Amino acid sequence: MDRDSLHARIDALGALLAAAAQPGDCLEANAFEPEPPARLLDGDFLLTWKQREEALRAVLAAAEILEALDRAGVSARLFDSGLGVALFRDKSTRTRYAFRAACDLLGLATEELDESTSQLAHGETVRETAAMIGFLTEAVGIRDDLYLGEGHAYMKEVARALDEAHRAGVLPRRPAVVNLQCDLDHPTQSLADVAHLATLFGGLDGLRGKRLAMTWAHSPSYGKPLSVPQGVVALATRFGMDVVLAHPPGYELAREPLAFARLFAAGSGGSFRVSDSMEEAFAGADVVYPKSWAPMAVMRERTRLARAGERAALAELEHAALAENARHADWECDGAKMALTRGGAAHYLHCLPADVSGVNCDRGEVSREVFESARLGTYREASHKPFVIAAILLLTRFADPAAELAGLVERARPRRGA
Amino acid sequence: MDRDSLHARIDALGALLAAAAQPGDCLEANAFEPEPPARLLDGDFLLTWKQREEALRAVLAAAEILEALDRAGVSARLFDSGLGVALFRDKSTRTRYAFRAACDLLGLATEELDESTSQLAHGETVRETAAMIGFLTEAVGIRDDLYLGEGHAYMKEVARALDEAHRAGVLPRRPAVVNLQCDLDHPTQSLADVAHLATLFGGLDGLRGKRLAMTWAHSPSYGKPLSVPQGVVALATRFGMDVVLAHPPGYELAREPLAFARLFAAGSGGSFRVSDSMEEAFAGADVVYPKSWAPMAVMRERTRLARAGERAALAELEHAALAENARHADWECDGAKMALTRGGAAHYLHCLPADVSGVNCDRGEVSREVFESARLGTYREASHKPFVIAAILLLTRFADPAAELAGLVERARPRRGA
Amino acid sequence: MDRDSLHARIDALGALLAAAAQPGDCLEANAFEPEPPARLLDGDFLLTWKQREEALRAVLAAAEILEALDRAGVSARLFDSGLGVALFRDKSTRTRYAFRAACDLLGLATEELDESTSQLAHGETVRETAAMIGFLTEAVGIRDDLYLGEGHAYMKEVARALDEAHRAGVLPRRPAVVNLQCDLDHPTQSLADVAHLATLFGGLDGLRGKRLAMTWAHSPSYGKPLSVPQGVVALATRFGMDVVLAHPPGYELAREPLAFARLFAAGSGGSFRVSDSMEEAFAGADVVYPKSWAPMAVMRERTRLARAGERAALAELEHAALAENARHADWECDGAKMALTRGGAAHYLHCLPADVSGVNCDRGEVSREVFESARLGTYREASHKPFVIAAILLLTRFADPAAELAGLVERARPRRGA
Lengths: 418, 418, 418
Prior knowledge:
3 copies of one chain form a homotrimer.
Chain A: H1 3-20, H2 53-71, E1 83-88, H3 94-106, E2 109-113, H4 124-132, E3 137-143, H5 151-167, E4 176-179, H6 187-200, E5 211-216, H7 227-236, E6 242-246, H8 255-268, E7 271-275, H9 278-282, E8 287-291, H10 296-308, H11 311-326, H12 335-338, E9 347-348, H13 368-383, H14 385-397, H15 401-411
Parallel strand pairs in A: 1-2, 1-3, 3-4, 5-6, 5-8, 6-7, 8-9
């Protein structure tokens, strides 16, 4: 991308940001509490469905510009010092790396809080710790996706603590809380997914009218988070896609993102419906996203039992869940099902790692053949995540992100070399 | 703080540093071995009572300037590359973050040595490892507070090893060892405490004649380090405070810091005495610092038993210590005791995390009401620690720290922005 | 080193790099598959014996220049952002620090992949993870030395995965894989060893005709990697040294590096032979390198049993290996054996940590007296490793490393100071 194209894109980003900053109507979805849209500047980035559409388009536009700067060898370093704090309450390779790489791209050092070597815990001390790690911090990235009903609440608690400490003058700046996957949403994943689709369909406008099948798929491990499918259906519907969510009975998702998916589909000219057949969802699809997740009722009960420390009941619950799970081993994305898609050639998405039949499990989410032919595409899908995170940092931390990007283009400092 | 005020403070810092660098008398406290005062430049920072008063005032002055630069958005990056090595032999959230943030503020990357994934151990290999992690290192921050009689000795051993390797030309520069809490002192904590008091009393001179009650308080965990109270009484007495140390019989502190507290009080026009009543200590106090610590005799015995691997005896010792501890549950900082302080409105200090009754324990160091009203104040107290550590790094690593700070002000490079 | 001397050395480096980039003959050693020499630019650094001699001389020359820049206080920062990923599948203090310090010296942040908090594993996912951690990465440093037949294969697998992802356009740049110790070679160690010898003998040419005894030595732990002796004999022979490898029967090394050692000795005018007597190897030696390693057959069997999960057989194997090991406790480098060397004053090398008799074990690789007199020398030996790694990063990541170094000299940016 040449200098003029970069400036044109930066101008477009500026217009999106101006629109996103207008006082906006509340986004109301069914029975959910109406609240004003989240702001970008000095705000947190927790749930895409609380963000205005222009804000999401701005994130995607900024990510694209940052990616172009990297390919052009232009440094995007905007911080001379400052910290990004990472707090992972679940395993992570991709997102941990992406957060680290995003921070480093902008000039922030990363400090990972390890709950085993610190004294972090739920309850009173969350409030305290949030202040203690905020003094020279620009952003706190959190993964907390293990227990339904807890992850998002935890991030809000951290955010409130940072608010309080900032209001009291303890923190000279209010760090942004960035959701690196909670129980409700996985926004850096879904935005990377949409960024990938935009490259496949000639831009975000190309998503309009395209059919996306977000389907459950079988995996030997029954307990995967619900946040990826929830995040995908609530985001894809904003861009006019025809979204079909499919899963066996019992694998329903949380009500909030689905209610927003319906609302967004109505507003964007897209559509959203739920099916109980993988085949029906695949029929005519342009994009398929077959992915295992846990039954919500089981996850709720697991949270309750874990809190109560009832180990025996937990083991029993897990046993029953695995048995139920095994009944749906036919929910595998194989060649026959792919043949049902538009021209037999739908794009395959996955957040990785996938459970591939005959590779890392006996019967998984996807057959070896389908995955192998789609594999490099899933890597491309993942490649956008560091830039999406960097874009979120840029848009939450700077008053005029477009001016900063324009400054980077003019500065044109090489990323490497003496 | 504007440019002129900054330069005025930097000039004052320069004068303090000049005074601190004069050949000084030995600080002799009772029977303790007289030794020349520790030097700042190319020295270590281990015990405040081995530092000259001007050196401590210089650390506080530099911390204040660095904090002002941060609030003004001016970059304090002084290193283009270089490492701060962190070695935590005990859990840490606050100090680990503060060390990391301080290093990053000055441009150093942090490398944390993890004893479980390396081959660090006491004895012969300390000497070797110290050299091995020193080649491109500016500072080694160490927390080693678990065993009485060991932490400070360990830091001295590391320091001697660095000396030897530097003298032999193996290390081109001699990294500073920074005490991030040992068995004797916790200087970055006590200096942050004093920095906080200076903001409350209109500067360091305002501490003169103020009464500080450093008291034991009850906690369900009996084994907390003694270094915080030891460090506080040995430091507050240098600034003319009237310090009362109170604890139940059996909870005596180490002799060395108390001997220095007496010496310093005599020299500064302050006072130092020991009491066995929390109420008496609180009476008329301007500042209270109620905090649990372990009985020294128990800690000594614990070190011995742990070294000898006598597990059964260790468990018995712990059992007896807990029983003794429980007898002093009334040593709680509650509303009634706070009412005894000057105007019923003493400032409450704590190094955090506190054991708050009814919050994270049944009966702790402080009542919920007292802690809640003091809570944000304790956050402010903690907020100085990253800057105190950065100041120590600045003063130990640069020949003319005032000139470096003046250079930062003139350079006026924004910490963020293209 | 002054500016002119630096430029002279940089010119010499440029000449070496030009020679190293010429199309070269395959290095063929006995029955081993001939393959073209590894390239430096955009290549990996896995085995010294697959590198052309000019390439190795270039690494040593660049390391020396970087060391001189550091001593002169000139910043060697070449990256404004970018990551070095560290993946340690075995414990490490020295090399982990050296990799971190090398990355930081050039301006790269380090991210350590922890297999316990991520989902890394052998098999299919190596390929995937390699791509996932490569997006903004310049180098991946790997230690994988525990299982014979696995470490080098793992690094090649990572390298192939990065190749594939780069070819497909997923990775905008192909990160270098740097061997931080595998089952075959430990190139950053052996190059640091040779850099040290060059300082002792007045440059690399001074190694010609010097006699090096690389000998097995007794240690209570029988399972140390074979890569250090293998790497040392295959490297020292390239510089015209007369190398004697000595070990008890049963402690043979892998065939490949020995075959190359013979080939290199023939080409360089040096020599290589194998002995079963420590005394004979020491006789007349200029340099001794007494170091424990495991019996290859035992290590092979251990790999097989570990893969098969046969724990009982593993324990039995270990028992037998320890018994055999104990039979060779006289393979200790003591004063009597040192007296056999040239003038009784051979230089003692060790990669550290050493097993020192009466210090960290009863009967180890070296007597306390010999080690103590050689100790600071071993620290000097180790001091070259961060610069060797930085040199490898420089030579694999930049098209014209000599021009970059010349740019650093001209830029003359102080490493520290406002």
